[in-house]
Amino acid sequence: METNKKLITAAGGNGTVIEILDHTLLRRDYESRGKILERDFTARGVEQAGFLIPSERHFEMAGGEFCGNATRAAAVLLSQVQDENNVSFSVSGFNGVVSASVERRSNTTFFVKASFPGMKIGIKTVPLENGTVVSIVDLGGIVHVIIEGVLPADYIPQHRQIVKYLGLRNRDAVGVVWYQKATSDTITIHPVVWVRAVDTCYYESSCGSGTIAVGKVTGSQLITQPTGKTISVEFFEDRVVLASEMEIVY
Fold it and tell me: Which DSSP letter does residue 59 get?
C-alpha cells in the first residue's frame, strides 16, 4: 500500500483514519496517537481514528470502543494486505471474531458486509428528565440512547445532559441517536457520539453501531444516514450483519 494511513468513509460519511501498525500498542498510546491522527486529518473530515495490526488480525479504535463503520473500513485494508476478499479479525469493544466480505466496485469503492457472531444487544426503555421515553441499546463497546424526534439545534449540550442523567459517563462510548420515520419502511438517523478516552463528540455523518441500535428498536433493516445514503442491518439468532458501500477517500 502507498501509505500506512488511510481515510475511509461508510455510506458517504463517518470518515475513519486508520494507521496500519507492525505491532500492538499500549492503551494509552492508542489514545495519544489517535488524537494526533484526528488532528492531522481534521481538514479531510475525519470523525474517528483506529489502528489495524495485520500480523495480529486485530483492529483497535483509539478510544477502545466498538465501531461498526470503522470495523468495515479495517476490513477493506486487511483484505488488501492479505489479498483476500474474505477476512476475519478481532476488534475493540466486541467479544468475538468478525468475518467480512469485501467486494471491489472501483479503485476506491467497495461493498463491505461484516458479520458479528454472538453480538449481545441489551435493550431497556426509560424516561428522561423531561418525561420523554427513550430506548437504551447496549452493544458492549458502545451504548446508544435512541430517541424518536428531530435533531435539536443544541444537540451537544443535550447529549451531555442525557449522558449525565442516565449515568453513562463511565462507558467507553455513548451515542444519542435521534431518528425520524418518513414512512414505516424509511427511517433516517441523526447520531451524536461521544468517546470517553479521547473526549471527542461528533454529529456523525453516518453510524454503523447506531444503525444496529435503531434497527433493533424499530425493526427496520435499511437505515438512511445523514449523508442520505443507507446502511443495512440484519438480525439473526446467532449474529448481526452490517453492510454498505465504503470508499477510500485518502
Answer: E
**Which domains are assigned to the chain?**
5-117+242-248 (3.10.310.10), 122-234 (3.10.310)
CB atoms within 10 A of CB 238: 8
CB 54 within 8 A of CB 81: yes
On the CB side of 239, CA atoms within 13 Å amount to 12
Name the β-bridge partners of 15. Answer: 46
Residues 63, 122: Cα–Cα separation, whole Å = 22
What is the per-residue pLDDT across 186-220, written as a single tens digit (0 to 9) for each? 899 999 999 999 999 999 999 999 999 999 999 99
Looking at the DSSP bridge assignments, the partners of residue 231 are 223
Cell of 150: 428531530
Measure the CA dihedral 205/8/27/94, to 10°. 70
The 3-state DSSP class for residue 82 equals helix
What is the C-alpha separation between 93 and 162, in angstroms, rounded? 22
Q: List the grid coordinates of 31.
A: 489514545
Give CA angle at 97 (95, 101), nearest 5°. 140
Q: 213-235 burial by CB neighbour count: b if 16+ within 10 A, else e? A: bbbbbbebbebbbbbebbbbbee
Cell of 117: 457472531
- Sorted by sequence, the CB contacts under 8 Å of residue 190 that are 6+ apart come out as 151, 155, 177, 178, 179, 180, 203, 226
Q: 214, 206 in Cβ contact below 8 A?
A: no
Evaluate whether 91 touches 71 at the Cβ level (below 8 Å).
Answer: yes
Tens of pLDDT along 45-86? 999 999 999 999 999 999 999 999 999 999 999 999 999 999
Q: If DSSP codes are grouped into helix, strand and coil, which group holds residue 209?
A: helix
